[in-house]
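Mvd1 C-terminal domain-containing protein
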Amino acid sequence: MERAIQSRDFTTFAKLTCADSNQFHATCLDTSPPLFYMNDTSHRIINCVEKLNRHEEVPQGAYTFDAGCNGFLFARDRKAAALLLQRLLYYFPPNPDTDLSSYILGDKSILKDAGLENIDDVEKLPVPPEIRDKVPAQRFRGNINYFICTRPGPGPVLLSDQGQALLDPVTGFPK
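Structure:
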């Protein structure tokens, strides 16, 4: 893993990351009693990433799920991040009365790269090409509360202005 990160080998990074996550959850299922951390939405997110990667023939995304149902997704590059976000929003659109800026938190600049400005654009997303000729795709509106989009950066930064924080300082929950 360290070599993959140092050499910016996303293909190896993606394979190792996904395999490690899958093995962790397989071990959890193999305990007595079994531990069920992931839910149906978690499995659907994995399926979304796997379908994209098979379609592109080179890994474009990777996933890992900690001891919970929340996924951490990684993209090969900015173009792959936009493709992945389009698919996630296609499969998991917000409720119609949701403002896109409250559904996508963090770095919203990815929305422009994905060709999205508002909820209407999400509703108009085409069926992803990897499933276009398959059984009609099921969409899971409202299954996800929000996405947090980030970019690699210098690491943690102490904010002098609490208004810039993504988390509420009292509750610890996203604003």
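Residues 10-29 form the longest helix (20 residues).
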